[in-house]
Amino acid sequence: MDDKILNEQIYELRTKLREWKKLQVEKERRKMSEEQDNDKTDKKFSVWSEYTDEDKAALENLAAGYVDFISRCKTERESVVETIKRAEAVGYKNLDDIIKSGTKLKAGDKVYAVCMKKTVALFQIGTEPLENGLKILGAHIDTCRLDLKQNPLYEDSGLAYMDTHYYGGIKKYQWVTIPLAMHGVVVKKDGRVIEIVIGEDESDPVFCVTDLLIHLSQEQMKKSADKVIEGEKLDILVGNYPLKENDKESVKKGILKLLKDKYDIEEEDFLSAELALVPAGKARDLGFDKSMVLGYGQDDRVCSYTSLVAMLEAANQTFGKTACCLLVDKEEIGSYGATGMKSRFFENTLAELLNACGQYSELAVRRALKNSFMLSSDVSSAFDALYAIAYEKRNVAYLGKGMVFNKFTGSRGKSGSSDANAEYVGKLRDILDKHNVHYQFSELGKVDLGGGGTIAYMMAEYGMEVIDSGVPVLSMHAPWEATSKIDIYETKKGYSAFLTEI
Ligand code: MN
Ligand code: MN
Q1: pTM (two decimals)
Q2: Pick from 244, 279, 314: which residue ends a domain?
């Protein structure tokens, strides 16, 4: 082959290559502009732009009430007290009192039942017989935290500490060096209940778990995140003044004297105490534009609060089916125990309710459960652009896109999930659209990355229609979690629509 032919061929190839490259660039450009167009046509991306001034005022009002609620009610006990207070204000009566007095309940009556001060159920009786089923808004009011052990107090090297055992799934390294408040109860042998809240008032002291200084952390920094702070290292610092100089365990003795003088608590009283360490301080608006809320334990008090508000706002509405708002304890540790969803509390309460309505039979209880509809509400994980790799972008919830539905939860092939019925989902879509509720459907994250569960499957065992719904959240289970006010508002709207239409 002579040079001329070779050069011609090279020239031809180069031209082809240039054209091919041009084509690729054009293809890429078209793809990008299509994606941008898609973003523009996705109207639901910014729910905010559709809001009227009235919507915006209502949203801020709801958000302010919510921030106040989660700032004051940090434990299940505190949430139950507040729930009862608000319910009684709109005419709810204690079901136990109804039972004792033998009063018959009728349509429009409103009652509440409490389980061991930690779980509460509100009922608004409808005009239809109870065996036709209920419409249930369920959520949980327990939150991740550090619980004090039963023998907590000790002294080491002139410092007094209290030993904790964490409650719920936490990244332990997130709980060190932040101000912690102590909430809970100490029960004396004579039955007296001493209520404790230390660290919320500006003048209160706070507590904290210390961490090793960075200067000496060469070895610690090499550890994996699950080991960098061990569970047994989550002890809180509680004192440094010795009662008497040079006396053995004098700092501990000083703390005990203080506890005795101020609260009438003896060391042995911790045996019958439920004391939790939670992040100290109030929830706050988040962002320059105050569009979000940063607060402790939004999982799942954000769904609890919005469910409660929707339920109480409907206090004067006439319902066909009986409405119920169920706020339960122990979800974060598997729903076990008398106050968890796995207990018979709800079923037994329903039997009592049927009886108080003059409708009790074993079959009526079973039918009431089977014919019920439920929104099992819990927070859903929101897409976090900093950790985009954990999510599947088309099936994840976004902050600011509205109420979230998870048709199923679980892990490793939906295992452990109740998976809502398509027919029920269809019905809900119709209701939400009719009430102009902005909603999104999502999964927790990418398939096989992890997973989680809620109280839905326990209710599904009765054969009722149940789906997971709620509010998307960033930094779930961290001391401070983030939500969007839009999602809180839309979720409340969704609950109200559900109560009105089901
Ligand atoms: Mn939850
Ligand atoms: Mn949780």
Answers
A1: 0.90
A2: 279
